[in-house]
Hints:
By secondary structure, the protein is an alpha/beta fold. The chain has helices spanning about 5-10, 15-20, 25-40, 45-55, 65-75, 75-80, 130-145, 175-190, 210-220, 240-250; strands at about 105-110, 150-155, 160-165, 200, 225-230, 255.
Amino acid sequence: MPYDPARHGAYVDAYDHHRQQNPQRANDWIDKLKREFYDRGNSVGTSALYAAIQKRHPAPSAYPTKRFVRGWLRRQATVQVHQRPHRKKTDIQAIITSKPNELIQVDYMYFYRHLTGEPLYAEDEMDEEEKRKFDAQQDKLKKKGVLWPGCINAVDAFSKKGYSVPIKGNINSQKAWTAMKKIIALAKRNYPNQPIKKIQTDKGSEFMLNFRRGLKGLNDQNPGEYKHVFGFEGEEPPIGEVARVDCVHGSASSVWVV
């Protein structure tokens, strides 16, 4: 559900939200951020600062959420002075391929998530309350017999042929790699004389660890093939062709469902 000021009220970022809802805990988080950032000289970005605070204060609710850290950093003068201004590229990088299997774009699509219509957050940015709510919603789906909350979609950038593999339960890098092996087998069957050169994904956690390890193994066995690349800078959306399959998945006649 898109943000609607008339329905949801004035926008409040995570930093202000926590200060309003639980000022005592928010002030404790701010003190820890100041000690880490200024007193210890750990003047780093959001992810690194969040990880440092979490490691130093591992108890539940003892460390701030990543969005709180980001909001606090934006309010610091040193960050405001040195932060690069965000510029959106006006040009869109074209995807040019000359044969099938030269580039396969891959993405994970959720079928169900946040059933209440609340804002959708990346899982690594969920705080404990949001994670509990997400898990509770997934449990409701399981009780209703919905065991396939999403699928891995892939599209050949040249032929536009699509592949989909349903994922049972929560996604992770091992399940994504297992699905990718099925997609690779289909792509090789469809175009047996065309080696798979590149596989492009976003930087989601499901495309790290076992997924990258699996592709690296294939690349070592087949030099020049199965190279794992991430979305091109400036491309909108980052994984263009597969995003279109996400949108028309239900009616796409060229999609192979494994």
